[in-house]
Amino acid sequence: MKIFIDPGHGGKDPGATGNGLQEKDVVLDLALRLAKELENYNCQVKLARDKDVYVANGDRTKEANAWGAVLYFSIHINGHTNTSANGYEDFIYPTAPQKTANIRKAIHTKLSAVWLNAGRANRGMKTANFQVLRETKMPAVLVENGFISNKEDADLLRNKDFRIKLVNAMLEGIVNALDLEKKGTQGTSILGTPQATVAQAQEWARGRKAHQRFIDIAPAYWEIGHAIGIRPEVAYCQAAKETAFGRYGGAVKPEQNNWCGVKTKNATGDKPEDHESFPTPEEGVRAHFNHICAYVGLNPIGEPHGRYYVVKSLSWAGTVRYVEELGGKWAPNPNYGNSIVRDYLNGLLATEVPKVDDTEQLKKELEQLRQKNQELQQKLDRIRDIIFE
User: Fold this and answer.
1) Residue 57 lies in a domain
2) Which residues pair with 145 in a beta bridge?
3) How many domains is the chain built from?
4) Would residue 90 be called left, alpha or beta, if left means φ above 0 and alpha means ψ between -120 and 50 degrees?
5) Among 23, 144, 242, 324, which one carries the catalytic annotation?
6) Does residue 172 sit in the same domain as residue 208?
7) Are 348 and 201 in contact (CB under 8 A)?
8) 40 band by pLDDT with thresholds 50, 70 and 90
9) pLDDT tens-digit profile of 74-96?
């Protein structure tokens, strides 16, 4: 499949400006990030521009038509004299076919949710007689990611993490709309038997100055992981990342026994009450594995928490096989899974458990055996004396 990405404006045309930002710069950054993410799927990507140059809209549509693209995706940012105007909206051509409307709906669902979760407006799905929508021969969607003229929207657009959320939302929308398949992924398996021991994990945790609660919970990870078929060291390393080795310090509090940062079913923010609480640390471990089950397609143990069902309802639920694939799904950052492997799992697997010098203990046991042997010999001698008197 050929996807044509159009970062609006460029060069002599800055687009909308405001609050220290230019539309042409922000949309180019979003487009380049999106193109990079789409490289992981079975599709071809072409950009209307990959640097700060001016390209006429007519030239953009001609290139997309000649190339035979199946989707024209145009990225823009709004601007308005009314600085209170805010939020997200998107456009298709007024007489666009149902196929285009369906593609737009898939994209709108993902992108509008990002803006709504940030407290901004969902301005809806609209139509317009824009040149890039009118002159394209394939389905064409134009998205307006916030208002650069609105300070709150501009502050969000300035934030790197928020841009990553937008890119992931655009990616998921396009993947879902076009039913794109991911290229053959080779990575670190989530499923399988343990490749490390509890002793290794605890020694690694001690070396990373983990809180004692994190060291003490390791056996529960190995017990439940073995029972459910998920590598316990993978989940344990994820817990290390999510809780700072049991030290916490973020929105989730230690008393919530939430080892993986899982949120409540209807969470609206990132406060403690937006995260699940569990009665015991062990119950928190069970919930952690159950949440992973929604990602990998295994059956949970016992009754799952509410957020489990939210994940189960997603189009990709049950398809994740590798730790690296958790990026953009478990957490907005696309490098989330890579970080678990690079910064945590590799270190755990390389940890050696110190050998215990048990020489003295063996000497004590040998002495005890000698004493018992002497006692048995004395008893045997008495028995012989009695028999042969």
Assistant:
1) yes
2) 88
3) 2
4) beta
5) 144
6) no
7) yes
8) confident
9) 999 999 999 999 999 999 999 99
pLDDT at 346: 95
| CA–CA gap between residue 338 and residue 264 (Å, rounded) | 25
Residue 324 confidence (pLDDT) above 70: yes
Q: What's the pLDDT band for 357 if we cut at 50, 70, 90?
A: low
- 3-class DSSP state of 175: helix
Whether residues 161 and 237 share a domain: the answer is no
Q: How many CA atoms lie within 13 A of 168 on its CB side?
A: 21
Task: Name the nearest CA neighbour of 128 among 172, 94, 84, 179.
Answer: 94
**pLDDT for 385:** 78
Q: Which residue type occupies 40?
A: N
Token pair 């910064």 is at which residue? 343
Q: How far is CA 81 from CA 17, 126, 148, 151, 283, in A?
A: 11, 20, 11, 12, 53
| Tokens standing for residue 298 | 């295994």
Q: Tell me how far apart the alpha carbons of residues 269 and 257 are, in angstroms, rounded to a whole number.
A: 19
Q: With a threshold of 0.85, does the pTM exceed it?
A: no
Residue 144 appears among annotated catalytic residues: yes
Which structural domain range is residue 78 located in? 2-178
